[in-house]
Structure formats: structure tokens, C-alpha cells
Design goal:
Layout lengths: L13 H8 L3 E2 L23 E8 L3 E2 L3 E4 L10 H5 L2 E3 L2 E5 L5 E4 L1 H14 L7 H14 L11 E10 L12 E10 L15 E7 L23 H9 L4 E6 L8 E5 L2 E8 L5 E5 L10 H11 L12 E5 L4 H10 L2 E8 L3 E15 L5 E9 L9 H14 L9 E3 L2
Parallel strand pairs: 1-4, 10-11, 10-17, 14-15
Antiparallel strand pairs: 2-3, 2-4, 2-9, 5-8, 6-7, 6-8, 7-19, 8-9, 11-12, 12-13, 13-14, 13-16, 16-17, 17-18
Helix pairs in contact: 3-4
């Protein structure tokens, strides 16, 4: 089931947004911050010197965008975003390209997804190409922050929030659109002396807490999709797991189905009796975020010759429901070859352990977690052959060493 497109509450002509975007103002910071060496900061902690800001109100439409020094935003305490979580965002990355300029990876897809999220949240529409042009100018301005090390990047966070100053329940016809930038390295720690291929995480599968549900908002990039996962994440961490594997019983008779892993899309690789591999990932049924890295990985897997290290391997890709019991059964039978997660923040990361748990809150008691079963993919720590091939090719594409489908956009 595909997520239907919903109409915007305020359908202004995109020509107005384009006209305003062409009036981009740039106010440079008087003093530039020192750029810390890679490896001295964690993901998302450091902000660059500037940000992009523009606002919308029904009387004046969109303001001219402004690149200005990074700093606090002033919003009314009764703003819709603070009262009713009308907050949407995107995650993008810029890598150092062979030309010495920052290069974005499939940013048009990010703009399309942000537009879809705005429509679902009844926030004002914008022109995707015009906003992207403004973002490329911001990234070009902040290029001194881009780490030179392979696998490092600038993480770009476009955000739109509803700012209508009233506590009355309803859509916000006021909005603030802003973009911030942060230099980042690997999302998950890399073992000392190990390559990024050695990255792997453990997952605690839970069903009592549900990330998304049929007819809900799981297919959009909403802030409210993430914060309810903090409590299960803390419970998983107490048991030594890195992330939560979100399960959902959708009433299809298959029991608990795998949806996402933390904030990543999930994939499992099964080996058939003839030695051929089948890569299975849950379908985009409205409960799954349509990940851009997910789509890129599936496209590469389905394109003959796109992954040279797998050229002699027969691979089939299936987007279908994936019962968690199937992982357990395949592991016991020795046919589960590897599992991995994909996403903008992580690129591709191996999954070395999956605990299947039951979370119950007794009356007057805190959250309890009982581990029922462990499933460890046979590839062990780090990425297996399929995950490694995807990691290598996706990084080559993002850093401009390879080209596929015109996915790279240079920031100038």
C-alpha cells in the first residue's frame, strides 16, 4: 500500500517561492569558529558558522531566505510546533568531491520527501528546486567545515516547524523553515584499528512499543515519529543492545513483522538451496520511511554489474513482509547469511545480534524487559559480503569516485 499524496492546506503558486528564493540574503558571521579535528566530536554536536532561515505567514507568504550566523530562534511560547509537534525534517549529507567542492547525494529526493512531509503535516508548500539551490549555497559557504577524511561529511538538517501562535488545535498557517549544518564522522563507533566495514550493532526486537502503524505517519519524516522511541531505546541499552528493532503485528496472520531498526531501514540476506541470495526488506506500506539510502541500495542490487564484488553472485531483491520468526528459523537452519541497516546517518551498518524481547510494565513497577531469544547472523561482526559491497559503492558514489544515475550534485 502506497502512502497517498495529500493536498496542502495553503496551495500557493511555487512561482512566489521561487521569486523569494532568488532574493537570498547572506549575512556573514563576524568571527568564524575554529574547526575541530575529525574524531574529537560526536555525531551532531558541532554546528557550523551559518544557517539558512525563511518564514511563512498567510498575509505575506514566504520571506526572502537568509543565510545568517548560527544562533537561537525566537518563537512564540504558544507556537503550534511546541504544542502539537508540527515539526518535520530531512537528513542530507555533503561529501568532498573530486573537484574539491562539496557534493550532495540525491538531494532532489530529500526535497521531494520534505515536500511530502509538509503536505501530510498541513504546512505551507515550497518549491523543491529553489530550496535546494539555497541549500547548495549554504553548504558551499560552509565548505571549510567539510572533513577531508573518507567516510566523513557535512550532515545537513532542513527543518520546518509550525509557528502559528495559538494553542487552539488545528493546522499551522505560519511556519519557519531553516537549515543547519554539522560536521560528522561515523555514526557508530569503529573498533580501534578496524575499518568502517567492521562496524556492527545489536538490536533488541520489541513489539509492545510500536514505532508506526497502518494509516499512521511512519512513512513521513516527522519529529514525533522518533521521540516515542526513547524509552524502548533506553531499555534496550540497559540490556547491552545498541538499537531497537521495531516490530508490528499488522493482523496479517504472520505474527510480529519487522519494520525498521532504530532510525534505519532493515534488510536481511537469505541463502537458497542453490546458493543464490535473496535480499529481503520490508515494503513501503506506510509504516516504513521511504529511505533514500534504502532506495539507492535496492537500485544498485537490481542493476546488473552495479556492484562488481557481487558480479558472480545471483541476487534477488524482495520487498515484502518479514516476520521476525523467519529470521529465527533461518538462523537455526543456517540460511540467514547477514543482516544490515541502511540510512543517511550510517550509510550501511552490519547487525551482529538480534534479541527478541517482551516489554511489560507491571502495575506500580517500571518497564521490564525479558530476553526470550537471541539470533546472531552467521556473518558475525561487521558487514557481510552484500552489506560490504553496498557500503563501498555508496561511499564511492557519495565521494564522487564513481557515477550512477546522476545522483551527485556539486555545491557552488
Amino acid at each position: 500500500m502506497c502512502v497517498p499524496a495529500l493536498p496542502h492546506a495553503c496551495m500557493l503558486p511555487h512561482a512566489e517561492f521561487i521569486a523569494k528564493a532568488s532574493q537570498l540574503k547572506i549575512q556573514l558571521a563576524e568571527t568564524l569558529k575554529p574547526v575541530p579535528p575529525p574524531g574529537t566530536y560526536t555525531f551532531g554536536d558541532i554546528k557550523t558558522d551559518h544557517m539558512l532561515v525563511m518564514s511563512f505567514d498567510p498575509a505575506n507568504g514566504w520571506s526572502a531566505p537568509e543565510i545568517k550566523p548560527y544562533g537561537p530562534l525566537a518563537i512564540d511560547p504558544s507556537s503550534n510546533c511546541l504544542q502539537y509537534a508540527t515539526n518535520i525534517f530531512e537528513g542530507m549529507k555533503a561529501f568532498m568531491g573530486p573537484s574539491g567542492k562539496p557534493q550532495l547525494f540525491r538531494p532532489q529526493a530529500n526535497m521531494a520527501r520534505l515536500s511530502s512531509s509538509a503536505a501530510r503535516m498541513a504546512l505551507p508548500p515550497f518549491d523543491e528546486d529553489a530550496l535546494l539551490t539555497c541549500i547548495t549555497k549554504l553548504v558551499a559557504l560552509e565548505s571549510r567545515w567539510l572533513p577531508a577524511e573518507s567516510g566523513h561529511s557535512l550532515y545537513i538538517r532542513p527543518t520546518m516547524i509550525g509557528t502559528k501562535p495559538t494553542i487552539k488545535v488545528g493546522a499551522s498557517d505560519h511556519a519557519l523553515l531553516y537549515v543547519i549544518v554539522t560536521p560528522v564522522g561515523p555514526y557508530f563507533p569503529t573498533p580501534p584499528g578496524e575499518s568502517l566495514h567492521a562496524q556492527s550493532v545489536s538490536l533488541l526486537a520489541v513489539s509492545e512499543h510500536v514505532r508506526s502503524w497502518p494509516g499512521g505517519t511512519g512513512g513521513y519524516k516527522f519529529g514525533l515519529n522518533y521521540s516515542p522511541g526513547f524509552v524502548p531505546q533506553q531499555a534496550a541499552a540497559k540490556l547491552g543492545y545498541d538499537q531497537v528493532l521495531w516490530l508490528l503485528d499488522a493482523g496479517q496472520g504472520a505474527g510480529d513483522l519487522v519494520t525498521e531498526a532504530g532510525a534505519m531501514n532493515f534488510a536481511a540476506v537469505f541463502e537458497g538451496a542453490d546458493g543464490a541470495l535473496t535480499v529481503v526488506t520490508p515494503p513501503l506500506d506506510g509504516t516504513i520511511l521511504p529511505g533514500i539510502t534504502r532506495d539507492s541500495a535496492l537500485t544498485l542490487l537490481r542493476t546488473p554489474g552495479a556492484l562488481p564484488s557481487l558480479s558472480s553472485t545471483r541476487i534477488t531483491v524482495e520487498e515484502r513482509v518479514l516476520p521476525v520468526a523467519e529470521l529465527s528459523t533461518a538462523h537455526a537452519a543456517g540460511t540467514l547469511r547477514e543482516c544490515f541497516g541502511v540510512g543517511t546517518a550510517v550509510n550501511v551498518v552490519g547487525i551482529d545480534r538480534i534479541g527478541i524481547a517482551s516489554l511489560r510494565a507491571g502495575e506500580g513497577e517500571g518497564l521490564k524487559v525479558k530476553v526470550v531469544e537471541d539470533v546472531s547472523p552467521s556473518s558475525g561482526k561487521g558487514l557481510g559480503p552484500v552489506g560490504r559491497a553496498l557500503w563501498d559503492m555508496l561511499l564511492d558514489l557519495k565521494e564522487g569516485r564513481s557515477e550512477f544515475g546522476g545522483w551527485g550534485v556539486v555545491c557552488e
